[in-house]
């Protein structure tokens, strides 16, 4: 009966059951047949060969805590920084040396008169540079800032290093902070909390120095 009288609607077969018949649907027990496990294993081997983490390569950050995400990012960051220092920084330094040599020949840039070595005698020393690339990805912005502040306060790091990790130049940040503080003061706005604290600390220190000088006199 079913072979002789098929019922179709728009090309799709519509089952027509007789009284007492039942329709049994077959479902696959294993849809991927272990492909997901094979894919993860393959990506882990590729990531290990490239020197990066599995999460960085697969872009799969599911079920990761802050500690594991930070460890994964640091592993990849160490590899990227090594490649940046070995390839990108060396190439940029060579380009800067070529420009500096031409600038010295054209007398656009003049070396100090009391310099011990000429440019040709110490090319590497005159062209020594620290190049700042893109900043490190922040897993948790609050914890990253707290860590940077604690490292600076403990004397284990500097503003230059911490700003470089974020892809910024500390001198540009300092200069911008001075400009913004002066503009806020000129506009009648309150200074930021850190600027007010620094001003009060400097005022307190100068007052104590004046008192000590008056006592000594």
Automatic annotation (TrEMBL):
InterPro entries assigned to the protein according to its UniProt record, in alphabetical order? Phage_lambda_portal (IPR006429)
Q: Which Pfam families match?
A: Phage_portal_2 (PF05136)
For this UniProt entry, the molecular function terms from Gene Ontology, in alphabetical order, are:
structural molecule activity
Question: What organism does the record attribute this protein to?
Answer: Lacrimispora amygdalina
In Swiss-Prot or TrEMBL terms, this protein is called Phage portal protein
Q: Which GO terms describe its biological process?
A: virion assembly
| NCBIfam families reported in the protein's UniProt record | portal_lambda
